[in-house]
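Record type: monomer structure entry
Structure origin: computed from sequence
Chain ID: A
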Amino acid sequence: MKKIINGSITFLLLSMLVACTDEKDDYARIHSNLLPSEGHTYSLQAVGKEITFDLLEENNITNVGPIRNEASYKSMNEQYPKLELQKEPAFIVFDENGLVLKTYDYKEMIDFLQNPED
């Protein structure tokens, strides 16, 4: 009987540990299409301002893929209501675990992608 109790406690503790170490947010679990493609650190969703790879490369940013451009924050909110965008332009950056930056400031987005460790 003691082995069964110890085994149950061990299983419970391991289950809790696995649940606690899963750092992926709801975007990563539910909307995997928002996450970066293989081999890239970030994906970028730009709303109301078109961002291209050429534009990023001009700013020495090569750690992004894919880039998705959306014309309206309202249509973006319809697709992803949890983003709760208020205006455009808006820039949303994801890593493999989910949302890492949501900003309405173009320079802040560029600075983040140039210096992600800061």
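Annotation 1: Residues 50 and 86 are 18 Å apart (CA to CA).
Annotation 2: The chain has a mean pLDDT of 84.
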